[in-house]
Amino acid sequence: MKEFNEAFKDLFWDYKLEDILSNLDNDVVIERVLELGDIEDFIFLYKNIPKEKFIDFIKRKGSKRLSKRSLNFWSLYFGIK
């Protein structure tokens, strides 16, 4: 598995890595991991923030900030109707 700095440096090239790592439950972080991340990015984030943060993001902003395909996949994954 990639270390956290390796896992996230490509997704967050436009941010300071320290800022991202200190705010893992931020909507921008969740959005990029769900939309653009790979399985290792997701596992790292899933281990470091509560499942409820993902669910809350998907319910509040998923339809606006995720592609239809990603929204459908993650809604099924987290059991959101």
A few lines on this structure:
By secondary structure, this protein is mainly α.
Overall mean pLDDT score? 91
- The H-and-E topology, N to C, reads as HHHHHH
Decide which structural class fits the backbone: mainly alpha
Low-confidence stretches: none
Number of strands: 0
CA-based shape: globular
Taking the sheet with the most strands, its summary is: none
Helix content: over 70%
Total domains, how many? 1
Relative strand content: under 5%
What is the radius of gyration computed over CA atoms, rounded to a whole number of angstroms?
12 Å
| Count of discrete alpha- or pi-helical segments spanning 4 or more residues | 6
Report how far apart the termini are: 32 Å
Task: Please characterize this protein's 3D structure.
- 70% of the residues lie in helices and 0% in strands.
- The protein is an all-alpha fold and 81 residues long.
- It has one domain.
